[in-house]
Automatic annotation (TrEMBL):
Keywords: ATP-binding, Cell cycle, DNA replication, DNA-binding, Nucleotide-binding, Nucleus. GO terms for molecular function: ATP binding; ATP hydrolysis activity; DNA binding. Pfam families: AAA. It is found in: Nucleus. The keyword Transit peptide does not apply. This is AAA+ ATPase domain-containing protein. It comes from Esox lucius. Residues 36-112 are annotated as: Disordered. Residues 304-449 form the AAA+ ATPase domain. It comes from the Eukaryota. InterPro entries: AAA+_ATPase (IPR003593), ATPase_AAA_core (IPR003959), CTF18-RFC_complex (IPR053016), P-loop_NTPase (IPR027417), RFC_lid (IPR047854). GO terms for cellular component: nucleus.
Length: 858
């Protein structure tokens, strides 16, 4: 059966055998009279569809009933439908035109059917009239592109592709889809219109007839889907998060039942919490949480905390939990991503839409539960909008029936500002983002604990079992540990590793590497015959041929070479001078050059030399022992590192001033400059306030800042996963010159980096201002106090402070003289005729330290 016969359940050995040839013959206008068995069929082809049908019927009958050709056969029940089709077809011949005249229909006649739009997917629905379909497709749907003329390829939902010949009357013209649709309808090609078919399918789905299992398409989709999606939990019981968290969120959501669903709330069981009252000072976190969940509702029958804030590391299933719990509690989930919707108005609109509208999709209209994901990525303005929504006090919107009467416009406006009546669940990774602070105080906080490794590994085992892979628990536990129990990472890693595992299994690469690094076993008899002979047979030419054959048939030269490169140094080498290793490196170099030449010159005749590298490695390193082969990863790692280093260098060079940029390139920077530069920007700075630096130190700091700005380097504050704040050098060029095995570079202290970072900011501002003034000198004239003198910035600041202090004192003097009590004035000027006095405050502070000699105070 060919794929069309298969599709339409017909059987035809002859067709199967000669389907392709027949098509080509049909395309080339082969005279069918001369043909033997098919002659009847071909002869009638150009007459009408009715004829075709008869021929097809005859042929089918000959298959099914073994009756002589031409014997009439009783009509099948659905053939009246087919008849209708063919009656229409007689008027609208859909056969490709056989003569040039046919290309030009007389004006005013209806457009002919365009085979290019034949919807073959619909045929499947007409199971009871296979003959008609077979005939129609045999005539027009070709299995390969027609040798002459244009064609359109059509693929049905099973992936079967056919080619439809274009007719001249439409070639090159814009096709009006409505016209095509009407011509379809007129012909009744689908017998039952597609809309009706769709409705029938929908009905069958509704009544569960089509729930037996996934169709081919679905199965295909399943296999190509990510496992994280495929195995995403659908029910509460499938969740991996701890029960306490699940229960708390569900309880909080249930607090909304009264206002959302109008269900009466059960009186809280306060006996359990009584032990808290005995010692209210010491409440555990869970007790506090329970207390919140037991608290009374507010005036609108809403819980005290209108929003639940779920926080925790990524990939633990927070979003999944929120979705499942919300659905479980009877809500329609509306999710928005706060990092995506960064415009405040849009955010407001989305919140209002989700909290004030009802789901109208599906049979059951459900109230919405809004889930705001990644709220820690939202701008402060968005958080403020959310807070404003939570704190709305207007009661107008509570009952829409309340706003009848006068001033409809005003009411309408008020209704928009209605009080929040739907639960909102926010999700974040970092609870302590500054923008979240106000929300933290108004939210029911639920910290997501780490997933239990045992539970996670059990789930992973289930998933791998479902995918036909058996993985031992130790490996799964190790995977959980490596990923910090991140469900997403675990499942993805499992999927990727099974991918490479399958790949290796299929291609037998591991076997191949093993064959290369292991000597073939010589049979005892042969060993007894003599080593030379044994080598000749078990080794030498035979081994060469064997490895050559294996390597050529694998075809995976790149991966094969990577495997050889990653493993050859792990093999036992008896040669103390490492001559074999040098030879291997020469071979690798040769292979690399060969590959390069081949690809650059597109000279693939050189490819035949590629399998000789494994042969060379076999003769250099093959051993009797079973080798331990590692899957090659060094090339990928090196590529990733190179890309990261290049990106860092490019980022650094991108903002380097032109005068320096002309002198350095990426190569010179990475090979000559960078490692020294990193030492230069790490001077020894005293851990004191820069105001207290000596002039030499100040000069050093200023030079350092100048160098860093010139080379586009800066320090940026970052937070480690452990929550520790650090300053990191940006761009991250340290990694470019950091070689493994060498002692780590000297680092500046956190405080020194902080000082440098702050001073750099100031210096950048100063430079920007100077540049602005240089470009716009008019502004300089308007500003009388522009920094033009060579006096340093901190000196100016000090002078300003002193000036202000004097003014203040004068004011004070004026005030105090009035009341005749002024201690400072009574004391007179300080030592050195200074008006600044030091006052001794009892206590100790290490904030500012400076050596002060007694003589300076005298
Ligand atoms: N019990 C489970 N079984 C299988 N897969 C799960 C389970 N729980 C979650 N997942 C899958 O793990 C992935 C991560 O889940 P989810 O997006 O809910 O995590 P998250 O904590 O919200 O992460 P993020 O903070 O990055 O948004 C999802 O693709 C989800 O389908």
């Amino acid at each position: 059966m060919d794929e069309y016969d298969e599709m339409f359940l017909t059987e035809d050995d002859y067709d199967q055998q000669f389907a392709d040839e027949l098509e080509v013959l049909a395309e080339m206008d082969f005279d069918p009279v001369a043909a033997t068995k098919q002659s009847g069929f071909r002869k009638q082809k150009n007459t009408s569809f009715q004829g075709n049908n008869t021929a097809g019927d005859q042929h089918l009958r000959s298959q099914s009933q073994a009756a002589p050709a031409g014997t009439p056969k009783a009509k099948r029940p659905r053939q009246d439908v087919a008849k209708k089709l063919f009656e229409v077809s007689q008027n609208d011949d859909i056969t490709p035109p056989s003569s040039p005249e046919e290309f030009h229909p007389p004006p005013g006649t209806r457009p002919k059917l365009v085979p290019a739009v034949l919807d073959i997917s619909g045929f499947e629905g007409i199971l009871e009239s296979p003959e008609r379909v077979t005939t129609a497709t045999q005539c027009h749907a070709l299995k390969r592109p027609p040798p002459v003329g244009g064609y359109v390829s059509v693929t049905d939902h099973r992936g079967n592709r056919v080619y439809l010949r274009e007719t001249d009357d439409l070639r090159g013209k814009a096709v009006d889809p409505s016209a095509l649709r009407s011509s379809h309808d007129a012909l009744g090609l689908l017998v039952v219109p597609i809309e009706v078919l769709r409705e029938q399918v929908a009905e069958r789905v509704k009544f569960g007839e089509l729930e037996d299992g996934p169709g081919d398409e679905e199965e295909e989709g399943m296999s190509s889907r990510l496992w994280v999606d495929q195995f995403s939990p659908c029910q509460y019981t499938e969740l991996l998060s701890d029960d306490f968290t699940n229960r708390c969120l569900l309880k909080w959501l249930k607090l909304w039942d009264q206002v959302v669903f109008g269900r009466e709330r059960k009186p809280p069981n306060r006996t359990q919490g009584n032990f808290n009252q005995a010692n209210p000072k010491f409440k555990t976190k869970s007790q506090i949480t329970e207390e919140i969940l037991e608290a009374d509702l507010d005036q609108y029958k809403r819980p005290k905390y209108k929003v639940a804030l779920l926080s925790g590391p990524p990939g633990l299933g927070k979003t999944t939990l929120a979705h499942i719990i919300a659905r479980h509690a009877g809500y329609n989930v509306v999710e928005i991503n706060a990092s995506d919707d960064r415009s405040a108005e849009l955010f407001q609109k989305r919140i209002d839409t989700a909290t004030q509208m009802k789901s109208v999709l599906g049979a059951n209209e459900k109230p919405n539960c809004l889930i705001i994901d990644e709220i820690d990525g939202a701008p402060a303005a968005a958080i403020n909008i959310l807070l404003a929504t939570l704190n709305r006090k207007d009661g107008q919107g509570v009952d829409s029936g309340a706003d009848s009467g006068a001033e409809p416009l005003k009411k309408k406006k008020k209704k928009k500002e209605s009080v929040l009546l739907r639960p909102i669940i926010c999700i974040c990774n970092d609870l302590y983002v500054p923008a979240l602070r106000p929300l933290r105080q108004q939210a029911f906080l639920l910290n997501f604990p780490q997933t239990q490794p045992a539970r996670l590994s059990q789930r992973l085992a289930e998933i791998s079992r479902a995918q036909g892979m058996k993985v031992d628990t130790g490996t799964l536990m190790a995977l959980c540990e490596k990923t910090d129990n991140d469900i997403r990472s675990c499942i993805n890693t499992l999927q990727v590793s099974i991918g490479s595992w399958t790949f290796c299994q299929n291609k037998g690469l591991f076997n191949l590497w093993q064959e290369i690094f292991q000597l073939p076993r010589i049979k005892r008899k042969r060993v007894g015959e003599g080593l030379e002979e044994g080598l000749k047979e078990g080794g030498g030419a035979q081994r060469l041929q064997h490895i050559l054959h294996l390597a050529s048939s694998s075809g995976e030269y790149d991966k094969l070479t990577q495997g050889l490169y990653d493993n050859f140094l792990l093999m036992r080498v008896k040669d103390p001078s490492l001559g074999g290793v040098c030879d291997a490196l020469d071979w690798l170099g040769f292979s690399d050059r060969l590959n390069q030449t081949m690809l650059q010159g597109q000279n693939f005749s050189l490819m035949r030399y590629m399998p000789f590298l494994p042969v060379a490695f076999h003769f250099l390193f093959a051993h009797m022992h079973v080798p331990r082969i590692n899957y090659p990863s060094s090339q990928y790692e090196a590529l990733t590192k190179t890309a990261a280093s290049r990106n860092s260098l490019a980022a650094m060079l991108s903002d380097v001033p032109a005068c320096i940029r002309t002198r350095i390139s990426e190569i010179s920077l990475s090979l000559d400059i960078l490692s020294l530069l990193l030492d230069i920007i790490c001077p020894k700075l005293r851990p004191v306030n820069p105001q207290l630096f000596s002039s030499r130190e100040k000069q050093q700091l200023s030079d350092l800042i100048d160098t860093m700005i010139s080379y586009n380097l800066s320090y940026r504050q970052d937070r480690t996963p452990e929550g520790q704040y650090v300053y990191v050098l940006e761009p991250r060029v340290e990694a470019v010159v950091c070689f493994p095995g060498l002692p780590p570079r000297r680092q500046l202290t956190y405080q020194a980096k902080q000082t440098i970072s702050r001073e750099m900011e100031l210096e950048r501002l100063r430079r920007a201002e100077t540049l602005l003034l240089l470009r716009n000198p008019q502004e300089q004239e308007n500003r009388p106090k522009v920094v033009t003198s060579s006096v340093r910035n901190h000196q100016q600041r000090l002078e300003n402070i002193l000036r202000n202090t004097v003014v203040e004192i004068r004011v004070n003097i004026y005030t105090y003289t009035n009341i005749d009590v002024c201690v400072e004035v009574a004391m007179g000027t300080a030592v050195g005729n200074s008006e600044v006095w030091f006052r001794f405050n009892e206590g100790v502070s290490n904030a500012v330290r400076r050596n002060v000699y007694i003589r300076e105070l005298l």
